[in-house]
């Protein structure tokens, strides 16, 4: 998503956002068995992070975008309802998964991704976000799911 990029003033931070594989691995949960990107995110940062951590990458997309057998999770938006999906065989029982996204606002889509992972039998190892809009309270919403929430830039 492009909306996070213009708000970052530091050249070093822009490099981390545009090339997360160059970011310090310390801001990600290395104990995870795999990485997923949030449903609204550009998949490139999550995929780059998975490559950097040498972990598999799993797609979670908006409903109707994946071809194979899938599981679906609905969630509430500020202005209505939405649904996300994941291939039913993408995450194994007990697999620890890191949820990576470019922007944490209210936490609704990240929470829905976590529920989808748990529905598949996986465990949320933590959250890795590039930018947080702290005044919207998303991190506190996700804290009930995992205490490991890594955020690169906070506003």
Describe the structure.
The protein has four helices and eight strands. The longest helix has 12 residues, at 108-119. Strands 2-1-6-7-8 form a five-stranded parallel β-sheet. The protein has a three-stranded antiparallel β-sheet with strand order 3-5-4, with helices on one face. Strand 7, helix 4 and strand 8 form a beta-alpha-beta unit. Mean pLDDT is 81; it is low at 1-11. 24% of the residues lie in helices and 32% in strands.
Report the mean per-residue pLDDT as an integer. 81
Shape designation:
globular
Order of helices and strands: HEHEEEEEHEHE
Alpha carbon gap, first and last residue: 17 Å
Largest sheet, described in full?
5 strands, parallel
Helix content: 10-25%
Strand content: 25-35%
Low-confidence stretches: 1-11
Radius of gyration from CA coordinates: 14 Å
Number of helices in the DSSP assignment: 4
Could you give the count of β-strands? 8
Biggest sheet strand line-up: 2-1-6-7-8
Structural class: alpha/beta
């Amino acid at each position: 998503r492009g909306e996070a990029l213009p708000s970052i003033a530091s050249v070093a931070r822009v490099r981390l956002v545009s090339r997360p594989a160059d970011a310090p691995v310390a801001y990600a949960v290395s104990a995870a068995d795999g990485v997923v990107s949030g449903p609204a995110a550009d998949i490139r940062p999550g995929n780059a992070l998975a490559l950097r951590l040498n972990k598999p990458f799993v797609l979670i997309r908006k409903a109707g975008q994946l071809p194979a057998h899938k599981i679906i999770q609905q969630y509430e938006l500020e202005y209505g309802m939405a649904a996300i999906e994941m291939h039913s065989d993408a995450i194994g029982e007990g697999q620890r998964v890191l949820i990576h996204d470019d922007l944490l606002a209210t936490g609704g889509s990240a929470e829905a991704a976590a529920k989808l992972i748990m529905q598949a039998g996986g465990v949320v190892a933590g959250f890795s976000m590039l930018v947080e809009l702290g005044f919207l309270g998303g991190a506190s919403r996700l804290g009930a799911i995992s205490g490991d929430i890594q955020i690169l830039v906070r506003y």
